[in-house]
Amino acid sequence: MEKLIKYTKGCACARDLLCDNGFDDLIDFPLDLFASGLGGTIVHKPMTNSDGRIIFGKKNTIIEINNGIPFEEKRRFTIAHEIGHLVMHKGIDIHNDNEATMSWFNNKEKQARNGRVEYEANQFASELLMPSIIFYKKQKGKKFSPKLLRDLSSYFKTSLTSVAFKYLELGDHPICLFHSYNKRVKYWMRNDDFPHYITDCTKLSPPEDSVAMEFFEKGKIHTKEKSKQPIWKSTWLELNKYENDNDFNFYEFCIVTPAYDSVISIVWEE
Ligand SMILES: [Zn+2]
């Protein structure tokens, strides 16, 4: 069964912008040039405590991007996020973005203006770099794995985190995501069709036997080859009384950002 693509405001805005300009995707198109066509000048420079910044002027808008961002994919996602502000949020005069403002887990603050603006810019960036129809076709029929997410990240040239969230929305295999920061679980999300209950551990430490906790306690980051780690169902999810942990095959894959003490755990069943 095909998933229904839900076009949120930011998502629809990016889709229309691509369509109006005659693009199927921007995979091989320089984002700096795309931004300049929309009246935004991109400046790459060293920045502290900021990944990107937008300064709206009367005539011209400047978008500054931190040239210290270590991955091209993350740099592209940041540029796309700022382009989202450029086309959707003209009223704000100056705006700074970092790991916190660009967090995907801002559902609770979505009603507040800042939360909504960031959510829209992320949805915009996601659709600009990974058009839903193309993303859906690319993942269809492929087994879910950390490698699939990495392959999608290099195909669409965007951050692994943004791919994980796109997969949560559109991917064929049910997954759930937990974001832990500073040894505390901040938020979790799951697909509508994820068939298990989640033990709500928001504001608590990640589970003792989770891969996320292994990072916080021991600084352990698994290599690419070993990034798919077996866990118990009861690690992150509710184990019913009539169930036995041995009857399930659950895995956890962590996207770790040591500089921000942040871990995104992707949990799925095979
Ligand atoms: Zn922003």
Automatic annotation (TrEMBL):
Domain (IrrE N-terminal-like): residue spans on this chain: 38-165
Give the domain of life: Bacteria
Annotated Pfam families: Peptidase_M78
What the entry lists under InterPro entries is as follows: IrrE_HExxH, Rad_response_metalloprotease
The record's listing under PANTHER family reads: ANTITOXIN HIGA1, BLL7220 PROTEIN
The name this protein carries in UniProt is IrrE N-terminal-like domain-containing protein
